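The pair is set out directly below:
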Amino acid sequence: MSSETLTSSEYIRHHLQNLTCSVQQGHFHCAHSADEAREMGFWALNVDTLLTAFVLGSLFLFFFYRVAKNPVAGVPSGLQNFVEWIIEFIDSSVRGSFTAKSNLVAPLALTVFIWIFMMNLMDLIPIDWVPMLAAQLGVGHFKVVPTTDPNATFGMSISIFFIVLFYSIKMKGLGGFAAELSLQPFGKLGLPANLFLELVNLIAKPVSLALRLFGNMYAGEMIFILIAIMGSTWAGFSLGSATLFGSQIVLSLGWGIFHILIVTLQAFIFMTLTIVYLDMAHQEHH
């Protein structure tokens, strides 16, 4: 990143561009601009999103497995206390929203909440730290917040959607699921309207899950970027300069404290809606 020559618009575009790569003519190639990334087509990968999500997911599994493998019966450690508190919180959320019996829902809710929370939490890292480090390693673009990438949020929501479809058909049968789509809410006489309304409602579930999470996190990242630009203007520094780090922390502190609420709330909403959708899939309609 040529930080000394970036204008405000170039700075914004740089921080919003993913590290997009694909295999072309037998070589692994990464895009240097948004236009080049679009030309790579559907099979291009946002490497920064995948890498950050994988690392965070691995950390989650490592720490929870470590606690589960060696629990302390007497006076637990701080980490064990935290893990037990999280599990109790998830358990109470599942009991309050899920009326059927399933061995999948609670572990899925735990994974969804912690993983999304950790990915959202990356938004609190000062906006220039990771891009500056990536530039030192010769990487032009690197977004450290996976949930600001719609590919990640849609990937999670579509996975939940397929699980909901699976349990809808498993619990109600294919005929029962088809009847639920075609006979509600107006009965046999309203078949076309029923299908239209129920299909829209069905498709809206993964779309709303993905866009709600993406929109809130993307907006939060944009505010941090604008705060960094304001800091550079007030301090008289060049955008992306290492001397901006202190001013970014000070100016971002207020928004960062408030953003902690958004980070947690969006993970909680995604988890709660996942539980509710699975509960609806387990209910039989007559």
Observations:
- The chain has a mean pLDDT of 85.
- The chain has one domain: 49-282.
- Residues 126 and 249 are 7 Å apart (CA to CA).
- The beta strands are 20-24, 27-30, 45-46.
